[in-house]
Amino acid sequence: MTSQGPILQISDVSLVFGGVRALSDVSFSVQPGELFSIIGPNGAGKTSMLNCVSGRYTPTMGSVSFKGQDVTGLKPNDRAELGIGRTFQNLALFGHMNVLDNIMVGRHHLLKNNFVNGPLYWLGGAQKEELEHRRFCEDVIDFLEISHIRKATAGTLSYGLRKRVELARAVALRPDLILLDEPMAGMNLEEKEDMARFIIDLNEEWGMTVVMIEHDMGVVMDISNRVMVLDFGRKIAEGLPDEVMANKHVKKAYLGEEDDETDEDEQVA
Amino acid sequence: MAGFSIRPCGDFRTTYRQDTRIFDTTYIRNAAILGIFAVAMIPFVLDGYYVNLFIQISYFAIAALGLNILVGFTGQISLGHAAFFGFGAFASAWINNTTGIPVLLSIPLAGLMTAAVGMLFGLPAARIKGLYLAIATLAAQFILEDFFARAEWFTGGSYGAAANPINVFGYEIYDDFSFFYVALFFLVVMYLLGTNLMRTRDGRAFVAVRDHYLSAEIMGINLTKYRLMSFAISSFYAGVGGAMYGHYLGFVSAEGFTILLSIQFLGMIIIGGLGSVKGTLMGTVFMVLLPEVMESGVSALSVFEWASSTAVTDGLAYIKEMAIGLAIILFLIFEPDGLAHRWQQIRAYWKLYPFSY
User: Fold this and answer.
1) A169 and A181 belong to one structural domain
2) What digits encode the pLDDT tens for the residues A124-138?
3) Are B230 and B76 in contact (CB under 8 A)?
4) What is the ipTM of this complex?
5) Same domain (yes/no): A139, A184
6) Contacts of residue B223 in chain A, CB cutoff 8 Å?
7) Which structural domain, as residue segments, surrounds residue A33?
8) Which of A102, A109, A74, A73 is nearest to A87 (CA)?
9) Are A26 and A158 found together in one domain?
10) Is A139 in the B-facing interface, judged by CB distances under 8 Å?
11) Nearest Cα to B83, choosing from B126, B147, B131, B20?
12) Which residues of chain A have pLDDT under 70?
């Protein structure tokens, strides 16, 4: 697995907005085929980290490399073509399009037809190409169990379904690395179970490397291969789920233990 | 829950090809084709007044579709559409007069030239949005108007430019009767191309840029490219519509392409429905016919003694102008999605009648 090197390599990334340091010298790497989770309290810089990977933010310092190629200066659309897909924490569907068209947008960089042969439709092969890609999108729709809503306008759907459509749209990109920003936020238990199953299948069956931000600790600990913890823009722990859970810095960040208590712990230890 | 589609019972789609058709059902498709044939009968059945109205509708509708692609589908704004419309008219006359390229070819060439100009003036769209972009395109309107008045080599300056009639295989089209069919041909072709554009890759990218530009970029869409492309395609349509207008009148003068016409184009797409190809046509029909209907209303009133005094007839002429403004305001309040949406609702009503659920 590690023979080909990490698929994603983050080196000393810092992100500064005016006087606010959103990220300070964060480094980590993700191996191909891994399911990697980023956790941390609110405002810890998790989404900023994901934005640096997907290209919405350019790191103030440090570099991001994907499949061995430095992508730090690339625009988001170029990174999508290289094979990075993502979903958003706050829903970002194309609200007036139907579900199917939303998913077809994901095929954008794989489709070849353009403003010349697209309008000619039947003559320039655009129809044939569209239908081929439609077939793939239908596979995604089947996989995510949203076939009953494929013609519904995306903006009219319930929250849980919209989250699922957003995942479908990112999967349609056929990325090698998929970034999921709180895929289960605001869902009930049943929807969470479905989503966890989809993420595992994406990772194992579809062969996508997953980087996920999630607040539900049960899910994170159950399905992740490795976990990284951010707090105030710094990486405070990284490792197997159990190791991370046992880490005292992590406990402190989450539970806010008093400083003197930790000192006692250290003395005892 | 399911999508908003009104289809008869038992009419199932079994292939993706069937599911991507332009028209919902074969019945609607046949009705549309029949409708085109019915329209083609107009010159035989109705008099020249109606033929002239249809020709007006066709070149305005083509230009309005361009504006709808820019405003309705891509979510940009342009207050300079009339200037591009005028540029197309001058460009086609100029190409035809200086190089002798036949008019039927110079019309699309003028469209391409206008597309290039539109892209130039669309450059600010790569950076700015909304009101600021509106002002930037307003600049395009005034710069081009000034250009029309001064560039005598191109437009003939204040004298205007002569535009030759369309020549189809050696047959000169100089009367309304034959121009009607040229107009109908262009209208059908341009609307088909527009419809196809919107159901393929680049059309989806436009709507994606409009609905959520940040996630559009994450999905691999180059925002700058698509914003500029939208301006180019929009101007192409304006240029083709303008070129038809020029060759229909036989003469192009700079006065016609003011901001008032730009606003009228915006009125057409707002009344018809932003982001609807079909609605664009409906809105254009509405905007072209509204003054005519008002006119006949005014002349119908003149049978009354009180209405035939000059004071009243003059006043009614102004009311005609105000009616356009009133129509836009009423549509914005009561039917912001335009005639296309209203039409959809009427269809749904009769489909489900008498059960409203």
Assistant:
1) no
2) 889 999 999 999 999
3) yes
4) 0.88
5) no
6) 77
7) 1-83+175-269
8) A102
9) no
10) no
11) B147
12) 1-3, 257-269
